[in-house]
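Morning. Coffee machine broken again, so started the prediction first thing and wrote up yesterday's gels while waiting. Chain of 533 residues, entered below exactly as on the submission form.
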Amino acid sequence: MSDKQKIKSLENRIHRLNEIGMALSTESDTDKLFEMILEEAKNITNADGRTLYSKNEDGNLKFEILRNDSMNTIMGGSSNINIPFDPVKLWLDDSTPNQSNVSAYVALTGKAVNIEDAYKEDGFDFSGTKSYDEKTGYHSESFLTVPLKNHENEIIGVMQLINAQDENNKVISFDSDMQEQVESLASQGAVALTNKKLVGELKILFEAFIQLIATAIDKKSEYTGGHCSRVPVITMMLADEVAKTTTGKYKDFSMTEEDRYELYIASWLHDCGKVATPPHVVDKGTKLETIFDRIELIKTRMEIVKRDIEIDFLKRQINGSIPDFDDDYKNSMKKIDDNIKFIESCNIGGEFMKPELQQKIIEISKSKLVLGGKIQNILTDNEVRNLNIAKGTLLPEERDIINDHISITIDMLEQLPYPNNLKNIPEFAGGHHEKMDGTGYPKGLNADQMSPQAKIMAIADIYEALTAADRPYKEGKKISQAMRIMGFMKNDYHIDEDLFEIFVNSGVYKKYADEYVEQSQIDDVDHSSVLGG
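Came back before lunch.
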């Protein structure tokens, strides 16, 4: 070969290694990575047999891919055919290194081994190979076994090639040029595999951290425990059904695996702003609750009033002004007891408090008692205001604090340096309280300003909240009630009509309920009634 030909050959080799390096670096599937490495090794050496091992957690060599062209053997990798061989032990039972097995030796030492003829080799134990040849009629001759070393010079696997062949498919030995190219390929493959592993491990860590935050938020409140982990379930169920639809407004909606992952992460983070919400507001299970339920203070005051009345009657009896406890005393005591029961019932909170009940609270509040020598009303202005909350247990300013969690969520999420495939997380997670008519919060976005993913999450968030059995002042609704309420919300343009129709007709609501909702809440849903058909 002339110098010019040698230079050309070297240029071609470098060009090919660059090509395979780029291909390896962009492949995300591990099995395909393994197969690409072995396929390129075949291109270099025309090896008839090829095996790739990975070093497993036990420190042994696990068979990942096994190929033999003349034996038509295809196992492991994307073939989905299991390799029926145990991993190669690197250490024997007596804790000595297994240096008799050539693959184990390479994994232990990091040195490549090139054997011209296994039947003439006495440095390694090829009894297993010879037994295989005897059973199958194959003849294993030349072997090239090289380590896969990552950027930290750690052995992460081993590649073994058997029976290099010339252009006439005659078995030849692996020459030094082949070995050099295969070792270079193994190095590139190891780096690609390590990078993929590192990316995978970082992804797992990222997800675990996100779920840790969500779990902490759920644990923060006994009343909303599980919400952050249940919303992603409904979100992904509905998103997958929307992606399947072939008609209507969302017929062109589709998601890649990266798109699904982005939505999945966003759904886990949709309430992350609640880390800044005061627990006594989130957990306000009764109207009078702050750090503790102030109903006990009111009951104590009522008991003081009863005591004062009793003392007054006793004094009058001693003075002879009354012969015995009269009906006025009994009626006064009964009135106080009735007031206590009434206040306790109002304290619970509910769907609606009638104006006449609110007026009764005001009248009761004007009753007097003496504390510390001072006359004061039985109820403070703040207690009256709380007891007269018309719906639920929260004052308007407390509701604002709760609602502000979404603004905090957006602020937190917008500060994170996302990779390109996760850049939409703030919009997806931050839009689940917006409404199609623009009356939602925090930005007042309308349907045209929202992504399908944010609209999907809005439906998921509402359905979980309606069916949850752990809310402060109400039991989880039956799914028929929840769906009826959501039907009204659809009619009022609060949720997306087309997405809700898919939610109903696909049965997502039922699939979720079967696994996550109390059995007593599950009943039949009239689709036509819910959808207004």
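The longest strand covers residues 61-68. Going to sketch it on the whiteboard this afternoon.
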